[in-house]
Amino acid sequence: MKVIFLGTSSVFPTKKRNHQTMALTYGPEIILFDCGEGTQRQMRIAGMRISKISKIFITHWHGDHVLGLAGLLQSLAMNARKGPIDIWGPIGSKKRVSHLINTYEVEFPFKIRVHEVKNKRLQIIDEEPKYEILAAPLCHPCECIGYTFQEKPRIRVNTDYLKNFNLKSDPIISKLQEGKDIEWKGKKIKAEDATWVEKGKKLTYVMDTCENDRIIQLANKADLFICEATFLNELRDQAKERGHLTAKQAGALAKKANVKRLVITHFSQRYPKTDPLVREARSNFKNTIAAKDFMEVKV
Fold first, then answer.
1. How many domains is the chain partitioned into structurally?
2. Same domain, yes or no, for 175 and 257?
3. Where in the sequence is the domain holding 13, given as residue range(s)?
4. Of 64, 223, 275, 293, which one is the catalytic site residue?
5. Catalytic annotation present for 64
6. Listed residue (29, 28, 54, 20) closest to 205, CA to CA
């Protein structure tokens, strides 16, 4: 599982920062979180194929987070995509996506399925065999959603233990992973002795919000917490007024949520260098780095 930052700016892109977009690669899938202007071009530069995009999670409908969506969908149509694409977003997303796809003279040979996050609580909004996506409302002038990607626990086989039975490689081992006891050369091997549970990885993505407890719930014990840090703390009043976080506040939230790593992003154009923002975040949470366009982070 790997994160690629395709854009790290806030409302104004700069020479070095594209509009906000993050891609998560998981197996054959690419899952996008937000889709800022220029996303598909950034993906091409990063060597990523848009055909692998399976899902898009939109935090909110401010332009710097969605201006790349129409172009991306058009390119998928012109590439003759057949499989459906799923888009999640706040209330009103169905209407907004409908406006987008009906504005342009494009025929879509695939289904665009739009899902709205309606409940004002932390909830599971998407579930697959290997992972689930959770969402919670944030605090911004418009409807805004934070997301968590939670990998499901995996049953691992204790190969050292199986050596005691001279069992190294056989299809029967899969039974143990299903929680079933097996018999091998007249000896019973219990699943509880031969396997162990590996906790799945957790990634939380929070953009455009002022401080609130739902962030801590959403990011609780995350392996990777990706959080906006639009301003330095000297502009905290302006940040609050506009529904944003300072770097120092992002660090404080990471500490309260007991996460393992913090990556700050969504920087104002007034900060050509991120060193001051990183220093402020680290004053509350040491394990902090700043995202850069095309930076990759393994989870």
1. 2
2. no
3. 2-153+199-298
4. 64
5. yes
6. 20
